[in-house]
Amino acid sequence: MLPITQRTLAPGVTLRVVQTKKFKTSMLSATFLAPLTEETASLNALLPQVLRRGTQDHPDMEALSAALDDLYGGGIEPIVRKKGEVQCVGFWGSFLDDAFVPGDSHILESAAALLGELILRPAGEGEAFVPAYVDSEKANLIDQIRGEVNDKLQYSLSRLRSLMCQGEAYGIHKLGSEAQAQAITGQALYARYRQLLETAPLHLYYCGSAEPDRVEAAFRAALTGLPRGQRQPAPVTQSIAAPAGEVRRFTDRLDVTQGKLTIGFRVGGGFREKEDVARAMLFNAIYGGSTNSKLFLNVREKLSLCYFASSSLVLSKGGLLVYSGVEFSNFQKAEEEILAQLAACQEGKITKEELESARRSVMSSLRTSLDAQGRLEEYWLGRFVTGTGFTPEELAAAVEAVTLDQVVEMARQVRLDSVYTLRGRED
Q1: What strand order describes the sheet that includes 415-424?
Q2: Residues 326, 261: contact at Cβ < 8 Å?
Q3: CB 29 within 8 A of CB 204
Q4: Which among 239, 238, 244, 288 is positioned nearest to 267, based on CA atoms?
Q5: What is the pLDDT of residues 85-124, one digit of tens each?
Q6: 343 φ, ψ to 5°?
Q7: Residue 270, class by beta-carbon neighbours within 10 Å (0-12 exposed, 13-18 middle, 19+ buried)?
Q8: E-strand spans in 4-157?
Q9: Vertex 269, ends 264 and 393: CA angle to 5°?
């Protein structure tokens, strides 16, 4: 089991250190947590992009690139994520681990300092960003929001989430909307920056060979100028255990030759305990979350009703999404069979082979997370957002203990909420 250390550096500022020598690179990240709201989603999404354009000491991309080259070609990138109803914005960086640096050189302290510089000392004069940086990144954000429609599967999933969760924060896109982005001014963006800096919970992360004490000292030095006031508690995702009424149906029509059928379910509320997470993961793998799942083997392979058919969990929200590519003439048949496979799970029609194949799939996925720094960082951010602390190894042990009856019980919590179809204009 990897040694994990968590420390509180200041009220609302948490550092998690994963100490390991299995990677040639070390990974750092700094993530601010904010509630997803229509008023701030686009502001939050734009902020790390603008901050990454330059600092007081490295005022443009060229100077930042030179500083990273000096750190053996390391990288720091802005990142915007959505965890349930929490918007996570900040930076992650990857650098050559000090264990592989020649001589007595050390990278950790310099990398942390550059990360802190991006957060605390942005380029600009007075209380303002460089106007050209704001305008340029604002245009890029708008293009990114508009461009989502080009990936029809992601567009369909986004539409299902927004329509199914109207009036809920989960229905808000992690980038906000085009209208919100268009309305951003440099003054409003800087005001939001100061607000996040002073009040938002901050999750710091390190994965590499350095000792926790040294990592803590590096982050403390890098973030000396961080406001020290009392920060807001981490936002909480509101889960809705069951649909409010009848099944809702939504349809869009675009110039597409392949239809998309996406279906949203409520799964009895959010999951916090590792045993509940393990049961949900195993059920999902049996139903549609693996290549040996019921959706893949029956709806896609046996009946050829879909080009693809899969399911994914939204654990923090207590949701399940099914997504498939379908011929326009097969929408009804595909939906009926997708629901029939769910009914089979709820009736306990799961073979021992299906159960153990799904268990192997989930265990393999958890093991993979231990071998990929990006997935490991994503995992621990998820734990921080949900206020839980169980390790991937502990979750794997819980998966090993799940019984067939527990999977069936989990399946019976699933309730159909909404159905979204993307059809052709002439269909």
Answers
A1: 248-254, 415-424, 259-266, 319-326, 308-314
A2: yes
A3: yes
A4: 239
A5: 999 999 999 999 999 998 878 899 999 999 999 999 999 9
A6: -60, -40
A7: buried
A8: 4-10, 13-19, 25-35, 75-83, 86-96
A9: 100
Q: Are 266 and 243 in contact (CB under 8 A)?
A: yes
Average per-residue pLDDT for the chain: 95
Tokens of residue 226, six digits: 């961080």
Phi-psi region of 312 (alpha: psi -120 to 50; beta: other; left: phi over 0): beta
The answer to whether the beta carbons of residues 30 and 201 sit under 8 Å apart is: no
Yes or no: say if 154 and 325 are a contact pair by the CB < 8 Å rule. Answer: no
Question: What pLDDT shows up at residue 105?
Answer: 80
- For residue 370, what pLDDT is reported? 87
Locus of tokens 């997470």 = 277
CB atoms within 10 A of CB 110: 17
**Phi, psi for 104 (deg, rounded to 5):** -100, 15
> pLDDT band at 1, cuts 50/70/90?
confident
**pLDDT tens digits, 300-321:** 999 999 999 999 999 989 999 9
Q: How many CB atoms lie within 10 A of CB 117?
A: 20
Q: Measured between alpha carbons, how far is residue 8 from residues 5, 11, 15, 220, 382 in Å?
A: 10, 7, 6, 11, 17
Using the structure block, give the residue that is written with the tokens 């399911």.
311
Coil, strand or helix at 57: coil
Half-sphere exposure at residue 210, Cβ-oriented, CA atoms within 13 angstroms: 28
Per-residue pLDDT, 200: 98
77 — pLDDT class (breaks 50, 70, 90) = very high
- Cβ proximity of 74 and 111 under 8 Å: yes
Q: Which of 45, 52, 77 is nearest to 143 (CA)?
A: 45
CA angle 318, 260, 42 (to 5 degrees): 60
For the cut 80, the answer to whether the pLDDT of residue 344 exceeds it is yes
Task: Give the model's pLDDT for residue 242.
Answer: 79
- Cα separation of 47 and 29, whole Å? 16
Residue 120: other Cβ atoms inside 10 A: 17
Strand-pair category, 13-19 with 202-208: parallel
